[in-house]
Amino acid sequence: MVTIPKLGQVRGSKMVSVAGKMFHAFRGIPYARPPVGDLRFRDPVAADPWVGKIFDASREGPTCMQYHGNLRLILGVEDCLTLNVYTRNLDFTNSGKPVLVWIPGGAWYKGSGNGVSNAWGPGYFMDRDVVFVTMNYRLGPLGATAAILFQFSAEGFLSTEDSEAPGNYGLLDQTMALRWIRDNIRSFGGDPDSITIFGCSAGAASVHYHILSPHSKGLFHRAILQSGSSLNSWAIGKSVGSYTQQLGQYFNCPQSNSSELLTCLRKAPARKMAGFRRQIQIMLEYPIAFGPRIDIERKSPFLPGHPRELMESKQFNSVPVISGLNKNEGALVILMLLSNNGELLRKFNKDPVKYLRLVVNSDDIDDDIIFSDYAFFQDLDESVELFSKYNDEATYYYMYNHTSQFTLQRFLGVSSSLDLSGSHVDEVFLMFSHLILPRLRSSKDIKVSNMLLDLWTTFAKDGIPRSSLLPQDWIPTKEEQPRYLRIEAEHPALVNESMPFYQRIQYWKHKLRR
């Protein structure tokens, strides 16, 4: 039992880490009021206290409303703004443990931060001396977070592109959760002055948005970006208002007046709204449709300018940063094409340019586009360059170069006749536990898993990533001396030069600069 001052008591449960260590789990704790009725398409409101009652946090809360693209099912509920806290020590009389806050990815339209109903189990992190937190936030037009499966919702990022509905509600949910963590994590043995936010894919881009946002200033102290940046072509919405109009048409709502449109959409059935994904989905993850945007219509914008311009003018929260990528990010698209018995591949073959334009969010492409370079590498590399130039704190850069026994390719059931290892999100299988995931048995997988956990948790402690499994210290990258850590089992190394793709991506920077 834990007492949270000004909120009330919570009853959790006990769980066991991968190494057999007991820890406490407090799951499904509300950090904001349910975003239903008049609170739909509005900024989050802090959760009401439950003083005098005992809140049952012994099991996970529900995922947010979303459309599961693979199963073609609608899942979840709107009342989903909760977080999960995992801790080994409830003694809050001392300074507290470093706090790692996972912001799940998934194109801002799918999944949740849960460890049972989704993939973000705490088993590995709870072998370390940290407090681990995950969160749910509104997605798409209706709300949630993400797993590796393909799902959709819409409230989190719907926008009429005016002051009636500026958008970015999912990011504001995340900020509300971070504020809750800052104010209450000491009750769970965590240090509110040592909070590290991290995420993969859209979760990493979300982390980058918090670095850029004045709303999140002071709510975290370090940041880790795994395969995502706000500069990525898929990370910032350019047509959110257009998709909002399409959603309005889908419900026969008035189109000419934003207030009337929103009044109508607030009354729309949540499940049917989640089902809107069926009408616009072309390629599982794409189009993202409802995502973050520059919300200057808001009295106090979450994102007051383009990410690149904010970084170049040093208008961001300067904190130590780890940023990196996987060696074969673009394999994600191939895996999507080959999954579900190649259903999407057959459609792709009929009109490949249509799908490539959709993926890279541009009409100006060549047929031989390299997805890794355009959709990931060039923007991730540029964001690291900007950090190394303008960030007052250290910036650490890495390439994940390991081939593990369990990968996204295997998860999706794609034939192993093609080597698509090192794909987007492959590293998370070595960082998070789940009942459906096999235990790590390969000595190389175990080594790389420990290496990642060493680096992430020591960075969370004092801003310096360290591991005895590395042959030398990981030194920050510099504007005048680019360098990166190559993370692998056999020959991990600090490489004192630009990434191997650096010269190749200059093509995209000149041809398709947005």
Automatic annotation (TrEMBL):
The record's Pfam families line, in alphabetical order, gives: COesterase
Report the source organism: Daphnia pulex (Water flea)
Record keywords, A-Z: Glycoprotein, Hydrolase, Serine esterase
Every Carboxylesterase type B domain range: 3-349, 370-491
Domain of life of the organism in this record?
Answer: Eukaryota
In alphabetical order, the GO MF annotations are: carboxylic ester hydrolase activity
Keyword ATP-binding carried by entry: no
Q: Which family does it belong to?
A: Belongs to the type-B carboxylesterase/lipase family.
* Record keyword Transport present: no
Looking up Gene3D superfamilies in the UniProt record yields: alpha/beta hydrolase
Which EC number(s) are documented for this chain? 3.1.1.-
Q: How is this protein named in the record?
A: Carboxylic ester hydrolase
